[in-house]
From TrEMBL:
It comes from the Eukaryota. GO terms for cellular component: extracellular space. Its main location: secreted. One of its GO terms (molecular function) is cytokine activity. Keywords: Antiviral defense, Cytokine, Disulfide bond, Secreted, Signal. This is Interferon a3-like. It comes from Alosa alosa. It is found in: Secreted. Belongs to the alpha/beta interferon family. GO terms for biological process: defense response to virus; immune response.
Amino acid sequence: MLFIGCPWMQHKFPQYSRNYLTLLEEMGEKITEDNVGLNFPDELYRLARKSQPERIIWFIAQVLDEVSLLLDENVTAVAWDQKKLKDFMSTLDTQLVATQSCVSKTKGNKRLHLYFKKLRNETLGKMEDKAKAWELIRKEVHRHLTKVDLLASTRL
């Protein structure tokens, strides 16, 4: 299904998505196999997948925005490649702005927002080992961005 009103989603989104996923993987060591201890919101992705194209795009934009806000924290406790982190954030921000331009402003998904808030609190807020907390966040961000890429490629 193609969302006619937004050629970005069909032509540029996959390219930018592959780029930021690669940067995310390469900016640190192998992505950890440890778990955060939060239930990943698969149900929200299943609901989004059943939505109309404009709502799917808005959901994707909200995920990108939440990830951007999460990684906008002071990421100094971890030894990530700073150039790749900067390139990742730039690519993510470009993708976010372009995706938001495809849809009219609408209210975001509160449950998704609360999930990201809890992720921030359970890792950065409670863990003493900040480097480990950031690695857990990187893993969760990778999972979300992979889901978003799949959602965009199969539904738009």
